[in-house]
Amino acid sequence: MTTEVYESVLHPGSLVAELKKNDVSHVVWLPDSETNFLYNMMMEEPTLDLIPVCREGETMAVAAGLWVGGANPVVLIQNTGIFEAGDSIRGLCLDLNQPLVMLVGYRGWTRRGPTPDSAGRFIEHILHAWGINYYLVETDDDADRISIAFDESKRLNRPVAVLIGTEFGV
Amino acid sequence: MITNTDAVRVIDTNREDAVIVPTMNAGNVRFGLPSVTSNQNLDLPISGAMGKASNVGLGIALAQPGRKVMVLDGDGSLLMNLGALVTTSTKAPKNFYHFLFNNGVYAVTGGQPIPGSEGVTDWEEIARGAGYAAVFSFDNLEDFTTGISEVLAAEGPVFIHLAVEPEIENTPVQFRTRASRTAQQAYEEVTAALAGDN
User: Fold this and answer.
1) Chain B touched by A31 (CB under 8 Å)
2) Cβ contacts (< 8 Å) between A159 and chain B: which residues?
3) For position B91, which CATH number holds?
4) CA B103, CA B139: separation in Å to the nearest integer?
5) Whether A111 contacts chain B with CB within 8 A
6) For position A128, which CATH number holds?
7) What pLDDT, in 10s, does the model give residues B56-65?
C-alpha cells in the first residue's frame, strides 16, 4: 500500500488573480526570496504597474501618494522590510488612517519546524504592537483572504497585512 | 542665499494647479508654505515619516500625470532617503519637480550641521547621477524669480537645488506654533480635491 503525499502550495497566479479582482492599479515593491515567480507573472499583467523602490520604507509613502491621487496600490515586501519601514508605517499608514494592504513575505515562518531566523520570530509581535491585523496565506486555498484584507482595510481605513507563508510553485 | 519664505513664495506664485508636498522648514507654519499658500487644498505637508516627502510626491505624480507635483524637500531629509532619487528617476514622471531646500543644518532640532554640509556634498551631481532629466541651482532670489519659468517648462523629473538661509527652531516641540490642519485632515482634503469633490 502506498500513501500519496500531497502538499498544497501557493501559485503566483492565485495572487495575481486576487490583485485583479480587487482592481489593484500599482504594486509598490522590493523583491524578497518568496516572490520571484510572482514578479515574472506581474510583469506580464498589463493592468498592474510595478513601482520598484530602493528601501522598504519608501513603499508606504509611494502608496500614500498613489492613494491621494486616486489610484489603488498594494505594497509587496518581505517581513524584514516591515522592520525597516517602521517610521513610514507609524507616520503614514497609521497616523493618516491609510487603507493599505501590505503583502509580506514571511521569511523564517516555522510551519516546517523551528527556525533560527529572527525575522520569523518577531514579525507577528510587531504587527500586534502596532495594532495591525493580518492574515496568513500559505496555499491557493487561502488566497481569498487577500480579498478579506482589502475589504477590511477600506472599511476601517486601516493598513492590513497578508503574510505570505509558502514559497511559490511554478 | 534665499530666505525660506521667499523661496516658498516664488514656488507658490508659479504653482497654477500643482500639488505641493513640503517637509521640514519648507512646511513650517511660520515661514514655510503654509504662511504664503494660495491653495491649501492642494498642499500636503509630510513630517510624520522622515525623508519620505518625495516618495509621497512620486505617488501623486504617477496617479495624476496631467498635473504638476512639486516636492519641497530638506537636505537632511533627503539624506535619510537618498535612494528615493533613483526610485523617482526609474519611473521618470514628467510632471515631477523636486526642490531641495539646502540650509546645511537640521533646522528643526536646533541647527546641528548635516553630514557633508562643509562643501563635501555636490547635490547637483547627485541628482544628475541618479538620473533626473534636468537639474537647476539657484543661490539668490533674483535668479530664482526669473529662472522659475524655465524650471517649470522643463520635462521631469526635475531637480532644483536652492541655497537657503537656515531658520533654526529651538523652541521645545510642544510649544511651537501648530498647523491649522492635522496631517490627516490635509491628507483627506487633498484626496478629495484631486477626486474633484472640492
Assistant:
1) no
2) none
3) 3.40.50.970
4) 11
5) no
6) 3.40.50.970
7) 999 999 999 9
